[in-house]
Amino acid sequence: PSLKAGSQNSNQVPRNESHTMKTKRVRRLDLDIVINAPVQEVFDAFTAWTQQDRWMVGTRVEIRKGDSKSVGSVIAGWTGAGPVGFWDTMEITRWEPPYRVDVLHTGTLVKGTGTMEVVSLPGNTARFIWSEDFELPLGVLGALGWPIGKFPLLAGVKKSLKALKREIESGRAF
């Protein structure tokens, strides 16, 4: 499958300009994958927040506020194993079905912005693009650990995107 990753600036997805982060410890991740499904089907799958445990490694999501399908709605993802992990709370700041969702990470550990976008491709296929601009946690320690810590993060997201592709292409409804 086509899966590309970047760790700094990318021209594929415009930055989430809804919120500006005022720190020099911001890092960017960009990953994308081609999925053999129409745009609407991909959008419906990744925005089925409470079903993300079907494809997102070590994460379950719950709706905290709103309908989860509009600006101002809040969702929270528990990432971890059993009782060990953390909540990543996100407010939806842009909702443009079936193409784009932007979120603002408002948790204690994860802060920053995220963009999930679907681009139509020929042959009833779509490219799903996952982009994050996030503040490194733990101050200087986080900045020092980033050169090594980014690899497990990238591996987890890549594995998750491949699982999303498999789930969608299997035909199981979200």
Please explain how this structure is put together.
The protein is of the alpha+beta class and 174 residues long. 22% of the residues lie in helices and 41% in strands. The chain is built from two helices and eight strands. The protein has helices at residues 39-46, 139-169; strands at 3-6, 26-35, 59-65, 74-81, 84-96, 100-106, 111-121, 125-135. Strand 3 and strand 4 (74-81) form a beta hairpin. The protein starts with a strand and ends in a 5-residue tail after the last helix.
Shape field: globular
Query: How many individual β-strands?
Result: 8
Order of helices and strands: EEHEEEEEEH
Q: Give the amount of beta strand, in percent.
A: 35-45%
Mean pLDDT, nearest integer? 88
Judged by helices, strands and strand pairing, the structural class is alpha+beta
User: How many helices in DSSP terms?
Assistant: 2
Query: Strand order across the biggest sheet?
Result: 1-2-8-7-6-5-4-3
Question: Main beta sheet: strand number and arrangement?
Answer: 8 strands, antiparallel
* Unreliable residue stretches: 5-14, 17-23
Radius of gyration: 15 Å
